[in-house]
Amino acid sequence: MTRFRPCIDLHSGKVKQIVGSSLSANESDLKENFVSSKPAEWYAELYKKDNLKGGHIIMLGPGNEDAAIRALKAYPNGMQIGGGITKENAKKYLETGASAVIVTSYIFPNGKFSIEKLKELSDEIGKEKLVVDLSCYKMQVAINKWQTLTDFYITKENLDMISEYCFEFLVHSAGVEGKQQGMDLELIDFLGENSPIPATYAGGANSLKDFETCNKLSKGRVDLTIGSALDIFGGRLCYDDCKKLRVEN
What we know:
8 helices
């Protein structure tokens, strides 16, 4: 069954919901859906109270580490963390309280996939603590806050290969992320059919019906993250309704 995965997106030390495609080196291009007056740990404590596990904290650029660490300490072993994860710092976040780390740009140096770096990181912390972020535009994986397209595409063969070194995939559909205008149904269908390990999809969901759609398309094999549409992030979708679709373990 498709389950709800909570999130905390951090930008410049604050909890925000951002239109993914607007992230760039030019801050004036940034489109913010929501900037919270509450700190990151408030959300972590909420998810802990509601026993919501398997969610993720994403650090979008610099200036977010202090907020991320406070959130991890507020919900020990309850959330994954991504954004700037490397072989050198992964253990620090796990020791701080992350249930797993999410790797993206580190395994795509200069935009090219490196199986060697993936193996090194997996060996360093164990595949059971590693999530690979394959966020993409039309199946082409993007890194550096989704601004750099890589040479790597989401295919059955590539999913099979990477699954040897991690226990889960996180996949944002970058083109629809933060827009609340509908999910990438083709991507969800593909992940449900071809991912050999659990996968979580994010991007464009805005209703409880989207859980039904994701569940049907993926045959219950893909979980769903909702951000901007939730009322706790300034949207209209009731968080209390979504939290009932929890991850129990």
